[in-house]
Amino acid sequence: MLRPGQVLRTVAEDCFSGAVLTPDDLPSKVCELFNPVVGPFYVQGAEPGDTLAVHLLALDPARDWGMSATFPHFGALTATRTTAMLHPPLQERVWQYDIDRHASVVRYHARRSDYTVELPLDPMLGTVGVAPAGGEVRSTIVPDAHGGNLDVPELRAGTTLYLGVNVPGALLAFGDGHARQGQGEVCGVGVECAMRVTLAVDLIKHVPTPWPRIETDHQLMSIGAARPLEDAYRISQHDLVTWVAELTGLDLLDAYQLVSQAGRAAPGNVCDPLYTMHAAIDTAILRGATVYGGVHRRLRALAGAMW
Amino acid sequence: MLRPGQVLRTVAEDCFSGAVLTPDDLPSKVCELFNPVVGPFYVQGAEPGDTLAVHLLALDPARDWGMSATFPHFGALTATRTTAMLHPPLQERVWQYDIDRHASVVRYHARRSDYTVELPLDPMLGTVGVAPAGGEVRSTIVPDAHGGNLDVPELRAGTTLYLGVNVPGALLAFGDGHARQGQGEVCGVGVECAMRVTLAVDLIKHVPTPWPRIETDHQLMSIGAARPLEDAYRISQHDLVTWVAELTGLDLLDAYQLVSQAGRAAPGNVCDPLYTMHAAIDTAILRGATVYGGVHRRLRALAGAMW
Amino acid sequence: MLRPGQVLRTVAEDCFSGAVLTPDDLPSKVCELFNPVVGPFYVQGAEPGDTLAVHLLALDPARDWGMSATFPHFGALTATRTTAMLHPPLQERVWQYDIDRHASVVRYHARRSDYTVELPLDPMLGTVGVAPAGGEVRSTIVPDAHGGNLDVPELRAGTTLYLGVNVPGALLAFGDGHARQGQGEVCGVGVECAMRVTLAVDLIKHVPTPWPRIETDHQLMSIGAARPLEDAYRISQHDLVTWVAELTGLDLLDAYQLVSQAGRAAPGNVCDPLYTMHAAIDTAILRGATVYGGVHRRLRALAGAMW
Amino acid sequence: MLRPGQVLRTVAEDCFSGAVLTPDDLPSKVCELFNPVVGPFYVQGAEPGDTLAVHLLALDPARDWGMSATFPHFGALTATRTTAMLHPPLQERVWQYDIDRHASVVRYHARRSDYTVELPLDPMLGTVGVAPAGGEVRSTIVPDAHGGNLDVPELRAGTTLYLGVNVPGALLAFGDGHARQGQGEVCGVGVECAMRVTLAVDLIKHVPTPWPRIETDHQLMSIGAARPLEDAYRISQHDLVTWVAELTGLDLLDAYQLVSQAGRAAPGNVCDPLYTMHAAIDTAILRGATVYGGVHRRLRALAGAMW
């Protein structure tokens, strides 16, 4: 059980349950369980209609390597189970990345040539969620209104994720660390790595949150999860527009106009059962509006107190 | 007629043909022509199978104000002619922005309250295209493989747009200046303003380009245009993956993997007849690969020579 | 518990749990539970990897009236929670139909005029499903590979539905009777009525079924459930093509060609969390191929024995 | 030039321009022009805002064989130019059908086995269109509001197609005969055959038609063309609902409800640049409403007079 305000430190295993150890370990052969999560944690006092704030204080790769792969019939540029086609699957192939925390890079190695290149280390959690609404139980591979496998690279250390609570105790779970991923996660897999996670939770009582939201020091984001991708865009923009209207007192069309010119948008994943996109706006544009009672700043201060 | 290497200076009228002069001028009442373009220009020597490079040396708003609007049944958060629904249209409303070139801001004014806020000035061209393939003639509102109404905010001064040539002379046309727009252009309209355009064209002979591509000083982008939005994502990522493979010698799956971790993606528009997304990668990751014979750097140098 | 071969007679309440009794009873006001189902039933001997055959012997409306409605933000021609828009909801309105079993008609009455017209009575079950795979628990409003809220009007008396078994006992449940519905169920609601259901179950051991399939006396159908709608089409056609290849010995492209010319297709629902489409082919074209060991004919014979 | 009321007899070549003569003639090798059409014909007196009625009196295959094929990256179960993927293309293969007009069948022959089967002969025109609106020129492969490559198997002899007129003279063109096709035309190609076409045209002055509509002796249909497929569904259902409201005096939601229970729907094509679906309702349900001044019955009577 977690208490509001409590800090939790743990290690989350990678999406392959740690079973892919070399480029010769094909996930379809060696993995028994995909996308394991830590949890669920019962959050004391959480009730349906509340909002759970999950602040990521630190994300540190737990190993000095990460793995990625192509999977048969999974990813954006391949036929899949639902975008069903008559093509044979693409080759299943594994890539091993070096993770250098001191240099803050991950190193890519081609499999069919000696090409190698360094990319910025940018740790994130692919999966953070609570129990879904309506008594449903969903696979950890699914992103939706309850969070889950959002695969949004903006979910970095220093951010607070807001999730609506659907059941008593909220039942928080998380995992699927990526040393980094591209926007859209086009092949379906990030640089998967076991992750040391330090997070703090808090509760905003009696304030519902319809879709996952992220707060950073300088911006607000709404996340939509749907297919087709334009619906993920619509959900995220709609949530941001209505949120901006509420925060600024703007009428709905005035907020629509402001977000139309000031908003940013990007895909999280275009491969999971539901696709995700985020809509973002700088808080400066909202003239310093405070959201959820300032919980992000309070939790953010914990980081300063700890290190 | 334009010669390769030639610099062109002109002014492009806004998407309202300059007919919206105050917030009381509803586009549906005052506009006879939407999205006028400058051109078409016959580019000397351009033949089908070549690539036209269009380098934007400078984009400067031609007036100290811009206009935006909601249109009946146009935009991402409204029923449209094709996402047909039984709702009455949202209100048609116009917003006037101040454009302050010295402070480099555009100033938003709410219509139903006294809320006002400054956003960064970020001039772009919504529409740059050549004649389509296959003898087609398309409205200037349409983005597709020939360019057209891409509405991609990354099409700023300092960038080079590559378009495949489909007809002798290419027939370049452009317009639809925005003082800025959000990613996805959610309400369907940017901060529309007449734009002083300085551009240079060049030709890469016998090199085809399947979809619009953008080069900046530090990155390469591919643009897809399609519905649903995931197909715009697929096209742009597929073009970038195959382009990266060609530039680096990586095999196709190795390039797929690299773009999966290093790639960026964002929507241009989610409102036009076809939606657009771009896929981007830093050229540093490609170890300094030169594309299209280095034409971007040569055209970029023109800017230094002129100012 | 049900034994293979066993016949079950029961009554399934309507999707409003019987709470909508007059056109003045708005579902959003009077309903506490939507889409209740009868079950789940444990089917003796059913194991993952088997196929459950559910044969509908008879479907008879249990009342002489049925109800339909428009719901706020539900249906194909309205903004919804995921096709999120800024429109206010359409009006919530209820229609009461007379059901005349002797004349075999349902009678529509307009609410804003005295227009009335008779439509053929065509009873069906909207929801028939087993427990989903992977330990998931889904709302009864969801159609997917496990069946569920398929809302396919072809699920009439005289048909056999094949569902892959995911958990021991299969856990069959059903409900959501419609006196009839249009293809696509465009407003999101059929002519909802409590239904007397007579069905028989059987098991095909060690034969998996990837997506729901229907057999009638003269045709085979595959059902896909997905968004966007083309993916529901792709799934259903892909399943039918591979099934035809298996039944006829045709190679995959030969089967693709045959289905391309001989196949039928129609939407079930275009309103639920996943859309459904069926793909159908006449068994005569397959030169009398027998599927699932002829279980449909054996179960069909039960009907003759009973009446 | 055609006069309203005039009957035209002609032969339309097949979509391969007649160049595929045996199963060894791969379209990508032997075809210079795809989907040729007869026309355009200037219809005397047709003005923008009118409706052109095209009544198909007779469709007779002009040869005793037809051809079908799989194309690289074309069709619903394959990666395409816009649903871009990394798979190599499926094999290009040609099938030759026997067309037996006396027995009213087409005979399928497998290519990799000796499987052969007869299917009902059901001649239709894939492409019937007028000049598009807004000065556009579109490829004959494109279906849209102007008609074009609708690929709707319901476009048989005995039906009247209504198309809105966009330019003086309408500019009617047609072709792409199919001896039959499945619903959705899943592989992208029907049983293509040169077709003897007998049609009559008429004009309904000052009556616009927003999307293609079909009238048969007993039903009305609206056709939508869009991607994703749900938008083709939405367009067709929306057009049918508003049309029914206009014909019956029902208010919009009452018409929505009636179509929800009485409407039929099916895909035409799920492979062309825009997908098509039709929405249909029996005229009996509309209590004998007469549309477009009864032009269908008058043109239908021509058939009786001619044979």
UniProtKB/TrEMBL annotation, chains A, B, C, D:
| Cross-referenced InterPro entries | FmdA_AmdA
Q: Which Pfam families match?
A: FmdA_AmdA
Q: Where is the signal peptide?
A: none
Q: Which domain of life is it from?
A: Bacteria
GO MF annotations in UniProt: hydrolase activity, acting on carbon-nitrogen (but not peptide) bonds, in linear amides
Note the PANTHER family from the entry: FORMAMIDASE C869.04-RELATED (PTHR31891:SF1)
Task: Spell out the protein name for this chain.
Answer: Acetamidase/formamidase family protein
